[in-house]
Automatic annotation (TrEMBL), chain A:
CDD domains: MPP_Vps29. It comes from the Eukaryota. This is Vacuolar protein sorting-associated protein 29. It comes from Guillardia theta (strain CCMP2712). GO terms for molecular function: hydrolase activity; metal ion binding. Gene3D superfamilies: 3.60.21.10. The lineage of its organism: Eukaryota, Cryptophyceae, Pyrenomonadales, Geminigeraceae, Guillardia. Pfam families: Metallophos_2.
From TrEMBL, chain B:
The keyword Cytoplasm applies. It holds the Pfam family Vps35. Coiled coil: none annotated. Keywords: Cytoplasm, Golgi apparatus, Membrane, Protein transport, Transport. This is Vacuolar protein sorting-associated protein 35. It comes from the Eukaryota. Plays a role in vesicular protein sorting. InterPro entries: Vps35, Vps35_C. It is a peripheral membrane protein.
Length: 186, 728
């Protein structure tokens, strides 16, 4: 099952739109669920992700007005996946602090955002994913943010993680798409 | 369709079917005499006067289809050695004129193919003979049959039936003139009370007349010169002399549609000179608009084809002025003409913006003398089109900024229409670099309220969509030069600052974000050393940011607070520790004065804690002041579990390796960390008494372990064991 992990769009507060190159990649027939770390920050964005999959899970970011939960646990196949924006987890982005949240939620995978910098970590056999900001939204924590999101191919005992990133190429304004593939199993 | 009519049609079709069957059987037995007899019987059905044009057409199609068998037979006869001239004479013995002429045309078609006589002569004979039928509908269909049979046999360049295209033209012009007369005559038959029905029927039949012009336009041999001297004048002569409104309207439009644009360009004077001679009911405006739009599209597609020796703009301008000057047109119609003129000018001479603006000035006069302050109805619609045209016409929406009279026209529109135009402009502009001030002036209805419009009644959702668009636009206000970028932001805030509470919520956030980004860029320039192009300082940009956030504070205190915290992160990054301190202080002031919702208080305390932890450039004493304050707020939260969690979260602030004293010591105060943990433990105890909140203990225990492993000597095994006892 292919699931999109995404967050921190912050449209229109901090970014104009999702990059066209990403929009072309994201097609509704392929994506069977969306795990959103929050801070979409506008209805348009939420509708956009709902149009990709009606199975949409959102948690509350610090710039969200909606009535979303702070954390959420989603079961997909054999996996317990925890979702949290991450601004509540102080120090922000700290691995040990995230590990405490992972233990609280008792999950196999913890997906958080807030830093606007994608990262995939395995810590004490648990998987930590931060999909970054899909719009490359401006951030006080990370300089020169690159737009990114993560696709998860979830099978019973195996996860394949695809990281999509748009990097500024040396040759001018055009952004270059970079895809990484990682594997994880219980 | 009335029942009687349906019955007549069915009866007619039944007879056609039966007679066609007999005809074909006779032909199979090579019995030409009987074949012609049954064929005539079948054709006699077309003598009916009972059917409406649509029903007649159905019957006609059926008959014409059957006639192909007869034509095929004639062809075979010819191949067997029969002279066509004999047959041509033979069929003229048929008793009734309608079948006789249909048969004659059918034989004529094969006669031409046989080349026993020149096509020109046969066609001429046929087109003359058809005069025998003067009943309008029957005549029109008969001549349509002639056109159909002659279609591939017209003399033309490269045709095997004669290469002199003039013969082809003569034939078609002759037939066209006759058909037009028949068609016009329909108008004057029957009682006056049936006029409406008659006009409807005429419209159903117009395409039969127009087919002549289509055939003319298909003749290869006609070039622009020939069109100018031999074709168009003859068509126009018919158009004028028929003095019929329906015919004139239709034919003028058909001329525009069917002949190539190159021809129109060479004959504008002739064509336009005809317009004033048309009947008073003819919608000349529609004709002009159609012509201008068509030519504009052509000019865009094939700019090289435009002849340089004709001043198109002047020609159309003078005609349009004559029409609008005559005072016979409604305001909306006058405006429609100007819209077409603008579209035409933008297509034909994209660099002649002065002309476009001149046209807009004419519109401004029209609207001024009209006297309404806000338009409605068709005039409103036309004005919206007028303003949209330069935006979409040549893919360069910025054109509008070079048109001094453009923005002035906006004021005649009611708010929703102005928003419609402005929204289109924003969409078109989103991808382009723009002089911000003129742009914002233009999109003003989206940016602020104007008294004359009365209360703005957009609902929340519309407002949100619109303002989100504007917010997205702000992210496109970009300049690589930092001074220019600053000037853009200052100019933009002047506009957005007036937007009122419902708008600034959307617009000031991106403004702040852009300002922070600029501050960071300026700081990098400052750090870079050497000569800077810009003169603006990072401090000044932060000052601007602070003011902008303050502008939002009364309407949206929580948002402003969050922006202060965000801004402090950037100030810290830029080494501006005093500014960072000031920004956080501003956040605290808002927290204390404006935030009363306990749930939001909890969120904000955690966010402040997260932010403060990253402010590593602060003077340790300043840092101490701010985190102590935060911890105090944490302990004062309304709900006990919130207090508990906020206080243990604040413990991290006292264990911060990032913040350093001058002598290099880090800000890691084990004692105060422990104080926080002990305090949250006490609160957790209280919580346990009211409800079984064991999770809190686990969370706190996790912190004890965290600090134990991190080397905080004050947190010893003793505390961990005590803590474990609490919930075991």
């Amino acid at each position: 099952m292919l699931v999109l992990a995404v967050g921190d769009a912050l449209v229109p507060g901090r970014a104009g739109d999702i990059p066209a190159k990403f929009r072309r990649l994201l097609v509704p027939e392929k994506i069977e669920g969306v795990l959103c770390t929050g801070n979409l920050s506008s209805k348009e964005m939420q509708e956009y992700f709902r149009s990709l999959s009606s199975d949409l899970h959102i948690v509350k970011g610090d710039f969200d007005e909606g009535n979303y939960p702070e954390t959420k646990v989603v079961n997909i196949h054999n996996w317990k996946i925890g979702l949290c924006h991450g601004h509540q987890v102080v120090p922000w982005g700290d691995q040990e602090a995230l590990a405490m949240l992972q233990r609280q939620l008792d999950v196999d995978v913890l997906i958080t955002g807030h830093t606007h910098k994608y990262s995939i970590n395995v810590h004490e056999e648990k998987l930590y994913i931060n999909p970054g900001s899909i719009t490359g939204a401006y951030s006080g924590m990370t300089s020169n943010v690159t737009p990114s999101f993560v696709l998860l191919d979830i099978q019973d005992s195996k996860l394949t993680i695809y990281v999509y990133e748009l990097q500024a190429s040396s040759g001018g304004e055009e952004m270059e798409l970079k895809v990484q593939e990682l594997k994880h199993s219980k | 369709m009335s029942e009687a009519m349906a019955r007549w049609l069915e009866e007619g079709k039944a007879v056609v079917k039966q007679q066609a069957f007999l005809m074909k059987r006779a032909l199979d037995n090579t019995n030409l005499r009987d074949g012609l007899k049954y064929g005539s019987n079948m054709l006699c059905e077309l003598r009916t006067g009972l059917l409406s044009p649509k029903n007649f057409y159905e019957l006609y199609i059926m008959v014409a289809d059957e006639m192909r068998h007869l034509e095929q037979y004639f062809l075979e006869e010819w191949k067997r050695g029969r002279r066509m001239v004999e047959l041509y004479e033979l069929v003229q013995h048929a008793g009734n004129i309608v079948p006789r002429l249909f048969l004659l045309i059918t034989v004529g078609s094969v006669y031409i193919r046989s080349k026993e006589a020149p096509a020109r002569d046969i066609l001429k004979d046929l087109v003359e003979m058809c005069r025998g039928v003067q009943h309008p509908m029957r005549g029109l269909f008969l001549r349509n049959y002639l056109l159909q049979c002659a279609r591939d046999k017209l003399p033309d360049i490269g045709s095997e039936y004669g290469s002199d295209v003039a013969d082809g033209i003569d034939f078609l012009m002759h037939n066209f003139a006759e058909m037009n007369k028949l068609w016009v005559r329909m108008q004057h038959q029957g009682p006056v009370r049936d006029r409406e029905r008659r006009e409807r029927e005429r419209l159903d039949l117009r395409i039969l007349v127009g087919t002549n012009l289509v055939r003319l336009s298909n003749l290869e041999g006609i070039d622009a010169d020939m069109y100018k001297t031999q074709v168009l004048p003859r068509i126009l002569e018919q158009v004028i002399s028929c003095k019929d409104q329906i015919a004139q309207q239709y034919l003028m439009e058909v001329i525009i549609q069917v002949f190539p644009d190159e021809f129109h360009l060479r004959t504008l004077e002739e064509f336009l000179a005809t317009c004033p001679q048309l009947q008073s009911g003819v919608d000349v405006k529609a004709i002009l608009v159609a012509l201008m739009n068509r030519l504009a599209a052509f000019a865009k597609a094939e700019p090289a084809q435009i002849p340089s020796d004709v001043d198109m703009l002047a020609i159309f301008h003078s005609h349009v002025s004559k029409m609008t000057g005559s005072n016979t047109l409604e305001l909306a119609a006058s405006l429609d003409l100007q819209v077409a003129l603008v579209n035409f000018a933008l297509g034909f001479a994209p660099d002649r913006l002065d002309f476009v603006d001149q046209t807009l000035a004419v519109c401004a006069q029209l609207l001024q003398s009209n006297g309404e302050t806000r338009l409605s109805g068709p005039a409103k619609h036309s004005t919206v089109q007028l303003l949209k045209t330069p935006l979409i016409s040549n893919g360069q929406p910025l054109t509008i900024l070079a048109l001094p009279h453009y923005a002035g026209l906006m004021i005649y529109l009611p708010l929703e229409s102005r928003s419609e135009v402005a929204t289109l402009a924003v969409r078109m502009l989103l991808s382009s670099k723009t002089p911000v001030d003129s742009l914002l002036n233009f999109i003003q209805p989206l940016v602020k309220d104007v008294e004359e419009d009365g209360p703005n009644e957009l609902d929340e959702e519309e407002m949100e969509t619109e303002q989100n668009l504007i917010a997205a636009l702000i992210h496109n206000f970009k300049s690589s030069d930092t001074d220019t970028q600053y000037a853009i932001l200052v100019g933009a805030r002047k506009h957005f600052g007036q937007g009122g509470p419902r708008r600034i919520k959307f617009t000031l956030v991106p403004m702040v974000v852009r300002a922070l980004e600029l501050a960071e860029r300026v700081h990098e320039e400052e750090e870079g050393g050497g000569e800077r192009a810009g003169t603006i300082s990072a401090k000044k940009v932060f000052g601007f940011t602070l003011e902008t956030i303050k502008g939002l504070a009364s309407a949206e205190p929580v948002m402003a607070l969050r922006l202060f915290l965000q801004a402090s992160l950037i100030a810290n990054k830029c080494g501006e520790d005093k500014i960072a301190y000031e920004l956080v202080s501003q956040a605290f002031i808002l927290y204390e004065d404006e935030v009363s919702d306990s749930k939001i208080q909890m969120e904000l305390v955690l966010e402040a804690a997260g932010t403060l932890f990253l402010l590593n450039n602060l003077d340790p004493e300043d840092y101490d002041t701010l985190i102590t304050n935060t911890t105090k707020h944490a302990a004062r939260l309304l709900k006990k579990p919130d207090q508990c969690r906020a206080v243990y979260t604040c413990s991290h602030l006292f264990w911060n390796a990032g913040v350093k004293y001058e002598d290099g010591r880090t800000f890691q105060d084990g004692k105060r960390v422990l104080d926080c943990l002990q305090r949250s433990l006490k609160i957790a105890d209280v919580c346990m008494q009211s409800s079984n909140n064991v999770n809190l203990f686990i969370e706190i225990l996790d912190r004890y372990l965290y600090y134990y492993e991190a080397g905080n000597e004050k947190v010893t095994v003793k505390y961990i064991q005590v803590n474990q006892c609490s919930f075991s």
